[in-house]
């Protein structure tokens, strides 16, 4: 391992910068980790670039085509993604850090420098057919994803042995990488803005549960909403997305939809909720950690990233997986029986500290330094 020198250029390659979600905040923190960083993405738009990413992406080879599509859907461009990553100008980089969802590891073919893959997940839609519907631009997008699944799997498998180091954002993702890529991965949890989510003991607990984040099918907001209706529990939903209509149809009389809310409103909701719900299988799951950073416990499905973030009996509860109806019934039971006074805000916050941004940057500096 050696220290990164002032003249070393670190290239950060991301799948796409079209909306701001958890992986875009990872890119934002990667760009802040070293003195000289260039960010590359096949497509980008202003709404998808985090505020902390002060310099625009260097390479956006498919942006002209993306604009011709009206920036409505990136799905028609997916067949061109492997080509775009393979032709990125990465030759002069001291190291390349790839933020991978589907095709980004193809950047390993554009450089002789060591490539470190930070894997949010192997392409979920490529390996799990049940996830293709509703992803990437409706019915037409789902059809393209289905046709591309064989190509995506082959791209991932072919690139895997060329990668210098493989990182996973959770133990669950590391297991998928082992299964699909035949590579061992080091778990480096993603960075969470703990300074933006803090406890306030002066804020009283209120009699409601919180469901926060994007309302998209794979996050299974429908299960939380159905469970709240079955338990006759008050639920506040802060977020929006293409599953909104389905959620409204399932909602009981005690469910309130706020849509997208400001950070201050979200912070107050986290602080005052009895618990925050995570009903789907997340690769990692930023929202539960944000909740725990405010000292609020989490009730989550016991699969995926929740196994790394939620400590049963200490920072929340894990619901046993099962069929949809079984999960709804178990979650409804948890809502009926939940006692928030069993949880200590200070203890929950102390656990959340391990997901701090500074720790992520320190781990990434160590990994990249060891690769150079």
Fraction of residues in H or I helices: 25-40%
Strand-and-helix sequence, N→C? EHEHHEEHHEHEEHEHEHEHEHEHHH
The tally of structural domains comes to 2
Count of DSSP strands: 12
InterPro entries: Glyco_trans_1, Glycosyltransferase_grp1
Protein name: Glycosyltransferase involved in cell wall bisynthesis
GO molecular function, one term: glycosyltransferase activity
Domain Glycosyl transferase family: 206-337
Write the layout of secondary structure elements.
Layout: E1 10-14, H1 22-31, E2 37-40, H2 63-68, H3 81-86, E3 95-100, E4 115-119, H4 124-127, H5 138-159, E5 165-168, H6 171-181, E6 186-187, E7 209-212, H7 221-231, E8 235-238, H8 244-250, E9 255-259, H9 263-272, E10 275-278, H10 286-293, E11 298-301, H11 306-309, E12 316-319, H12 324-337, H13 345-352, H14 357-371
Parallel strand pairs: 1-2, 1-3, 3-4, 4-5, 5-6, 7-8, 7-10, 8-9, 10-11, 11-12
Helix pairs in contact: 7-12, 10-13
């Amino acid at each position: 391992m050696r220290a990164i020198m002032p003249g070393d250029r670190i290239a950060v390659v991301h799948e796409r910068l079209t909306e701001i979600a958890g992986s875009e905040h990872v890119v934002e923190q990667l760009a802040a980790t070293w003195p000289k960083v260039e960010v590359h993405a096949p497509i980008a738009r202003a709404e998808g670039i985090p505020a902390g990413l002060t310099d625009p992406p260097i390479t956006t080879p498919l942006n002209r085509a993306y604009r011709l599509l009206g920036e409505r859907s990136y799905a028609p461009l997916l067949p061109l993604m492997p080509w775009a990553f393979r032709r990125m100008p990465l030759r002069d980089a001291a190291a390349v850090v790839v933020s991978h969802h589907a095709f980004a590891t193809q950047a390993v073919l554009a450089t002789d420098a060591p490539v470190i893959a930070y894997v949010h997940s192997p392409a979920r839609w490529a390996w799990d057919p049940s996830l293709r519907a509703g992803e990437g631009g409706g019915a037409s997008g789902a059809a393209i994803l289905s046709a591309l699944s064989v190509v995506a799997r082959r791209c991932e498998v072919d690139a895997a042995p060329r990668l210098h180091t493989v990182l996973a954002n959770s133990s669950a993702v590391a297991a998928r990488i082992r299964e699909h890529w035949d590579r061992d991965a080091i778990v480096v949890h993603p960075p969470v803005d703990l300074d933006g989510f803090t406890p306030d003991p002066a804020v009283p607990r209120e009699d409601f549960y919180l469901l926060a984040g994007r309302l998209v099918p794979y996050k299974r907001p429908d299960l939380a909403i159905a469970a709240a209706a079955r338990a006759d529990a008050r639920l506040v939903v802060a977020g929006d997305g293409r599953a909104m209509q389905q959620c409204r149809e399932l909602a009981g009389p005690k469910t309130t939809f706020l849509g997208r809310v400001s950070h201050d409103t979200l912070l107050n909701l986290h602080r005052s909720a009895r618990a925050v719900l995570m009903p789907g299988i997340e690769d990692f799951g930023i929202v539960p950690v944000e909740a725990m950073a405010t000292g609020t416990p989490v009730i989550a499905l016991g699969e995926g990233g929740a196994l790394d973030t939620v400590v049963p009996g200490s920072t929340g509860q894990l619901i046993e997986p099962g069929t949809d109806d079984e999960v709804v019934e178990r979650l409804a039971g948890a809502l009926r029986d939940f006692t928030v006074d069993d949880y200590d805000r200070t203890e929950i916050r102390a656990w959340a500290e391990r997901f701090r941004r500074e720790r992520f940057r320190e781990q990434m500096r160590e990994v990249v330094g060891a690769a150079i």
